[in-house]
Design a protein that fits this description.
The protein is an alpha/beta fold and 413 residues long. It folds into two domains: 92 residues, Alpha-Beta Plaits (2-Layer Sandwich); 257 residues, Rossmann fold, CATH 3.40.50.300. Strands 6, 7, 10, 11, 12, 13, 14, 15 and 16 form a nine-stranded mixed β-sheet that branches. Strands 1-2-3-4 form a four-stranded mixed β-sheet, with helices on both faces. A two-stranded antiparallel ribbon has the order 5-17. α1 crosses α2, α3 packs across α10 and α5 runs parallel beside α6. The longest helix has 28 residues.
Length: 413
């Protein structure tokens, strides 16, 4: 039997809370639980004041979970306790590596950015109003071990095809011989299980780490394989934060040339968490030609600018419909995203058409066929995707020259 969230939650009812007569659950100290196979982690808000007190409470929680799991024959190979303050910032982490493990030494954390405002405000980027940095973010976002470039694909609104762009971009990189990873960070609406054909692959956890799935030459991880396909994820911001953190940091990616991250739509919690956690090479914004999509894409671009993330460019998806006879139909009005990119001073990476084969290959989990079709429409699609991969490579090279590992900053205007 595997560890489950109800098992871990019930076990923590045996650990006393800060107030007499309460426990970690009834005292509202338990904020979040994750459990998979023989691995579990929890997030607590508890008024402890020093490392020893945190580790003592974590040891009690670990012991309670072991006591609950033992009669069921369930192993606890990894147990992580994160303590957060009232603002939701992690202030201490206790890690237990096995049934008899002791807390492992906590890795040194980067110093926080100074809370005072800079003496000289930065120059706003083109098309960006003046803004004031919010203090307390990491001055140097870390990278993932063994991972080279990290490219995120976002959009201001849903339904514009950012997952289509992310999947085909990752497959395009893999077809060039790169070692590529793809992280489905769309916590609420994961698309990778369908688009990469992962239905028959089972989740594997080894030494407390998720093993990525392998499909079409791409190593991938998605929340869609960690929960039932028909289960809605009704999560508040801290839960989405924790889920993204686990998917990114607790997946055994191995050595990667490029990691592509498919973000959820909008400008919410996951995008902010990503910018704080990871050293990003740059962001791609996906947009359709319509004006309403352009407005939301503009907000996404400004968000990445305020976070200090390099904008690699804009992709116009669903630019035209190409029939099997090769004839093009401008269903949504061609060129709108390109005009927006020019207005905002960001690169235009290319236009991807709609074709019957693109829809079919996405539904059947066969993105490789998008690059190998022989019909007139298929050749148009393959050419557009090849252009996209080539343009992204060029922008990544430029970004690497001028970036110098700039620190993401959250700002408001």
């Amino acid at each position: 039997m595997s560890l489950t969230k109800p098992l871990v939650t019930d076990a923590l009812r045996a650990v006393p809370g800060a107030t007499a007569g309460t426990d970690l659950v009834s005292g509202h100290h338990l904020l979040w639980v994750s459990a998979c196979d023989t691995y579990a982690s929890v997030k607590l808000q508890y008024p402890a004041r020093d490392k020893a007190a945190f580790d003592s409470l974590a040891a009690s929680a670990h012991g309670a979970v072991l006591d609950a799991a033992r009669p069921l024959g369930t192993r606890v190979d990894s147990f992580i306790v994160e303590f957060v303050n009232e603002a939701g910032t992690v202030v201490h982490t206790s890690r237990f590596g096995g049934p008899t493990g002791k807390p492992q030494p906590e890795q040194p954390k980067p110093q926080q950015a100074p809370t005072q405002a800079p003496t000289q405000a930065p120059t706003p980027a083109p098309g960006q109003a003046g803004h004031t940095p919010i203090p307390g973010l990491r001055p140097q976002a870390p990278g993932l071990p063994g991972v080279g470039r990290v490219i995120t694909v976002g959009a201001g609104k849903g339904g514009v095809g950012k997952s289509t762009v992310a999947v085909n971009l990752a497959v395009g990189f893999a077809r060039q011989g790169q070692s590529v990873g793809l992280l489905d960070a769309d916590i609420y609406g994961p698309s990778l299980p369908t688009m990469l054909g992962l239905d028959d692959q089972e989740l594997v956890v080894h030494d407390g780490l998720l093993q990525p799935f392998l499909a079409h030459g791409v190593r991938c991880m998605t929340m869609g394989k960690l929960v039932p396909a028909d289960k809605p994820l009704i999560w508040r911001g801290p839960m989405a934060h924790g889920a993204f953190k686990q998917l990114a940091e607790q997946t055994r990616w191995g050595e990667l040339d490029t990691l592509v991250i498919d973000l959820p739509p909008g400008t919410g919690d996951v995008s902010l968490t990503m910018a704080q956690m990871l050293r990003l090479t740059g962001a791609i914004v996906v947009c359709t030609p319509q004006r309403v999509a352009q407005d939301d894409a503009s907000r996404a671009i400004q968000m990445f600018r305020q976070l200090g993330v390099e904008i690699l460019g804009v992709v116009e998806n669903m630019s035209t419909f190409v029939g099997d006879d090769g004839k093009e139909y401008d269903i949504f009005g061609k060129g709108g995203a390109q005009h927006m990119a020019q207005r905002l001073g960001v690169p235009f990476l290319g236009a991807i058409p709609i074709t019957m084969s693109l829809r079919q290959n996405s539904d059947t989990g066969d993105p490789t066929s998008n690059f190998t079709g022989t019909g007139r429409a298929e050749r148009a699609l393959a050419g557009a995707l090849a252009t996209l991969v080539r343009q992204v490579e060029a922008q990544v090279a430029l970004a690497s020259l001028k970036q110098a590992q700039a620190t993401p900053k959250l700002t408001i205007s």
